[in-house]
């Protein structure tokens, strides 16, 4: 059950007939869906709202319809993984999430243009945490984004990366976040594993 979102407004962000899948996937969940302004560090995210026992998904509103639906599908997979498994014992983009995400992509593959469907099929069979890590997908539906962008968790420890104008060095994992050193200030920060970063 969608909360705090006008379904007709949501449809305006989606490809033709994609709303049929969104309704089906979310009909048994209490969820707040927020369409946000462009964010440099992420295209979308999912989290469980402990205070009101709802799920929350956010998606950047500047994405084209196919990119918006792809990112929304990615986040719905996180929701379903959270519901089906003990989130404390699995990785955010582990095998459980990959299985569910792949299934959702296959189920909704006909929403995408015919020329894109072979790439969606390949991605469904080999899901990646970062949309930007799949160049074929990126060039079709995120053509205004840098395809070199990846998630923080994709980087090896010790890798230098940037978020916006700030430059960091990835250090060690702390549950679902990573301890990172900002090179300019020498201060350390815990950054979400699924933050979108630029590898330097």
From TrEMBL:
Origin: domain of life = Bacteria
Q: Could you give a single Gene Ontology term from the biological process aspect?
A: response to stress
Read off the InterPro entries from this record. SprT-like_domain
> Which residues does the UniProt record annotate as the domain SprT-like?
31-100
Protein name listed in UniProt:
Transcription elongation protein SprT
């Amino acid at each position: 059950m969608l909360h705090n979102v006008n379904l007709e407004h949501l449809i305006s962000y989606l490809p033709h007939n994609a709303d049929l899948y969104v309704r089906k996937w979310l009909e048994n969940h209490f969820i707040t869906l927020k369409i946000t302004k462009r964010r440099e560090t992420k295209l979308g995210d999912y989290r469980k709202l402990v205070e009101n026992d709802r799920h929350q998904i956010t998606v950047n509103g500047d994405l084209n319809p196919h990119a918006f639906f792809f990112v929304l599908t990615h986040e719905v997979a996180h929701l379903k993984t959270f519901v089906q498994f003990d989130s404390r014992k699995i990785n955010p983009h582990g095998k459980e999430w990959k299985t569910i995400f792949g299934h959702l992509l296959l189920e909704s593959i006909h929403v995408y243009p015919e020329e894109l469907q072979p790439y969606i099929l390949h991605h469904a069979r080999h899901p990646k945490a970062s949309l930007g890590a799949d160049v074929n997908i990126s060039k079709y539906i995120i053509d205004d984004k840098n395809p070199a962008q990846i998630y923080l968790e994709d980087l090896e420890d010790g890798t230098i990366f940037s978020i916006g104008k700030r430059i960091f060095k990835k250090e060690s994992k702390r549950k679902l976040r990573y301890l990172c050193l900002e090179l300019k200030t020498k201060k350390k920060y815990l950054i979400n594993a699924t933050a979108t970063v630029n590898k330097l």
